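Q: My labmate handed me this sequence with no annotations at all. I'd like to see what the chain might look like in three dimensions before we decide whether it's worth expressing. Could you predict it?
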Amino acid sequence: MVGYRRNFIPGGTFFFTVTLEDRRSSLLVERVGLLRAAFRAARDKKPFTVDAIVILPEHLHTVMTLPSGDADFSDRWRQIKSHFTRGLVAAGVPLSANHRGEYGLWQKRFWEHTIRNERDLERCVDYIHYNPAKHCPVSSPADWPHSSLHRYVRDGIFPADWGGSGAFDKGDFGERED
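A: Here is what I predict for the chain of 178 residues:
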């Protein structure tokens, strides 16, 4: 089997899909405050910009831009996952650990896509913001609270009713089809 090669580009912009091991879980939205704290803690250690994000019950999508000269998105994800997991344990959420003391909360890997140009960025941001209408019991993306869509609306980038028509194609962004 050919090994997967990640595309490490210093200062690059990347689309990520990160998933919990248990696809029936809703810990990401139930404990969204801990997830936000995990992002802040990782960003304090190694800066990055979240260009767009949506947090769903068992997975999240984000577009992240790294500082120039830095291509280490893998360590940022390790920090985010680790901080969130430790926060859950500290809050008393029952998680089972393996014989090495590791928690099986997250899927081991994540899916990433290097943003190639402005059109690719727009496509990925649209996908992120429309994702709740695809996966969650909301009729409009604006009805989902855990999305950067609200920031885009506040900043006048998107109208308040953006995505309400359901006119987006599904695209292939590393998700399993339900």
